[in-house]
Amino acid sequence: MNLPNKLTMLRIFMIPLFIACFYLPQSWVLFTLNDRPIQLKYIIAGVIFLLAYITDTLDGAIARKRGLITDFGKLMDPTADKLLTAAAMIMLCRFQVMSAGNFLMPVFTIIVIAREMFVSGIRQLAGSRGIVIAAKTIGKVKTTLQFAALLCVMLLGQVLGAVGVPIDFIAVCAAVLVTIWSGVDYTLGAKELFSDR
After folding, report:
1. How many Cα atoms within 13 Å fall on the side-chain side of residue 83?
2. Residue 129 is part of which domain span?
3. Closest CA to 135 of 196, 67, 50, 77
4. How many domains does the chain have?
5. Least enclosed by CB within 10 Å: which of 30, 60, 125, 129?
6. Which tens digits make up the pLDDT trace of 163-176?
């Protein structure tokens, strides 16, 4: 197994550690802001989430630079990304860290996971017909926005909630809108696949 694939597997193995952070003691308080305790566990989770994303950037860069692109990497790299994002959103449904609109997080999570499943289905259908659907810029923008928004929630959500500035909520809304746009774009780009011909 080459280095990029090892980094991909490391990202997958980091997911249980990331999830475990949410169950660290609530008594671990970094400081208090406007009578609201800023709990350390969400910040630790955010740091691990950031480190996992860095491995994603590294494995792709190394694979392209050294010509180490493999079928394993093509399959597992996007799978690791989807698992990490889904894990983060599911945990944020359970632990309401966002500064505002936490009741919408389950809806956001369903939209994001549904989009990933639908696009994966389109890719599988295209592959069965010998058609390769290349990654699109909008898909990369979607992934980057999702990462940035979720990281903002974990690192800053508590502080933003305490001061009443819902920047993280706005970022998540933007990421979800781009996720929907990306899903529609992939669907329209592959509409010939749904033809009976």
Report:
1. 19
2. 3-194
3. 77
4. 1
5. 129
6. 999 999 999 999 99
